[in-house]
Amino acid sequence: MTVETRSGRDGDLTALADVGRVHQNAKPCSGSAEAEMNLGRVSSAALMLSGLAGVLTPTKVASALDLSAASSRAVAETRAGLGGTYAALGGWALLSRHPAAHAAVGVTWTGAAAARIASLMIDHPRTDWAFWAYLAAELGFGSAAIASAIRRFDGIPTSVS
């Protein structure tokens, strides 16, 4: 589907509005598509709850990740970086009806998994059960969110011309 646009800033806004209308008018999914959308929401909720834990209990989160939160600055950085960022992204994806929200959550989870895998070769960390559980969660939640986003992108134009 091609979306007609006018040139200039107003035309760009018209194109975005048209894309939004196409998404709002898309047919509801059923069966496995609905299950994938629910998995995307679960992934978003997990990211949000992970972030809320970082905001509300930053020293416990830092300890669980084998990080040192020895100063008030370290606690503040844990609260902001591991808490606020993930809580905001996960919350936005839960509230948003746009597939890009689930895609962003999926890319965040899989990016964490990729960095964790790279760290095995670069950093040679101590790998206890928690390390592997976090990796499994990152891959699982990331895959679920991306699958949900892909299914939901059906019927939405991917380019504007």
Summarize the structure in words.
This protein is mainly α and 161 residues long. It has a domain at 42-153. 75% of the residues lie in helices and 0% in strands. It has six helices and no strands. The chain has helices spanning 9-24, 32-56, 58-64, 72-95, 99-122, 129-153. Residues 1-30 have low confidence and may be disordered.
Q: What share of residues are in beta strands?
A: under 5%
Give Rg in angstroms.
Answer: 19 Å
- How many strand segments? 0
* Number of H/I helices: 6
The biggest beta sheet is recorded as: none
Order of helices and strands: HHHHHH
**Shape annotation:** globular
Outline:
The chain contains six helices and no strands.
SSE topology sketch:
Blueprint: H1 9-24, H2 32-56, H3 58-64, H4 72-95, H5 99-122, H6 129-153
Helix pairs in contact: 2-3, 2-4, 2-5, 2-6, 3-4, 4-5, 5-6
Task: List key phrases describing it.
mainly alpha, 161 residues, disordered N terminus, globular
